[in-house]
Amino acid sequence: MADAPAPAPLGALRSRFASPRAAPPPRPAAGSSRRFDHEPLATLVARASDGWSVDYDEVAGSKELPAYLEMIAVADPDQLGRDEAAAFWINAYNACILELIVRWRPKRGINDIPGAFWAERFRVAGTELTADVIEHAKARKLGDPLVHFGLNCASRGCPPLAVYSGANVWPELASNGRKYLADESRGAALDGPRRVRLSRIFQWFGGDFAPITKPPSELGTLLALLRPQRLLPWTRQHLPEQLRGASEVGFLEYDWSLNRA
To answer: What global pTM score does this model have?
Structure first.
């Protein structure tokens, strides 16, 4: 299979390549013990999804999603510690995407929705935010590429849908990442004795996985595009054992079709 970029509308591609330029949110006091309750979303996802696919009829008829959206609409994540903030922004992103899908009911996938990532707005933390802002200016601003293993844009090429706790967010993200990279059609696959093909998430956000500046920049992504083997040092620890000896990198086609059950 050729390494041509996966087809996607211009807005979606612009969203994928964006860098987290917005100013970081105010830092909470060190050792903040504040918590945010994600139980409504966790209950819904456990009932409506196996991670890879979602029963959107179940989501549409649920009481948990509206309740959770009301909670994140008035939340104050600036008062959360870093771990709790990571769980908040990732779960908020995924909940907003679930709401978007059940409201629009696209037949093929999220890219059927005009401006799904950059025009549609959601009430989160007392303001109107797009999915792009939540992803790039909030989740990615935390500075850990593991966040990419948590964000689910309702597409079959995404990492599995899960709900994260502030207490264990980084181990949970790492575990979800290993599950994703163990899937040969989505995450990573051997392509010859020394070549591994990775999800295009690693291509789109190469500057996060192989940064040359803090915060990560488009230059780091460009260098990763030119020399994709730069992605291996960080990625290797999360790959299945049989893929860790790879020294060359290619990319899988990204499946933008709706992750409908």
So the answer is: 0.88
Whether the CB-CB separation of 143 and 93 falls below 8 Å is answered with: no
Per-residue pLDDT reduced to its tens digit, 59-110: 999 999 999 999 999 999 999 999 999 999 999 999 999 999 999 999 999 9
Q: Is there a domain that residue 1 lies in? A: no
What is the helix (H) or strand (E) element at residue 257, kind and residue range? Answer: none
Distance separating alpha carbons of residues 161 and 152, to the nearest angstrom: 6
What pairs with residue 258 in β-bridges? 155
In whole angstroms, what is the distance from residue 175 CA to residue 152 CA? 15
- Contacts with 260 (C-beta within 8 Å, 6 or more apart), sequence order: 53, 54, 56
Within a domain: 199? yes
Determine the Cα–Cα distance for residues 197 and 187; give it in Å rounded to an integer.
8
SS (H, E, C) 11-77: HHHHHHHCCCCCCCCCCCCCCCCCCCCCHHHHHHHHHHECCCCECHHHHHCCCHHHHHHHHHHCCCH
Q: Compute φ and ψ for 196, nearest 5 degrees.
A: -115, 140
> What's the structural domain count of the chain?
1
Domain that holds residue 191: 10-21+36-251
Residue 146, in any domain of the structure: yes
Residue 118 amino acid letter: W
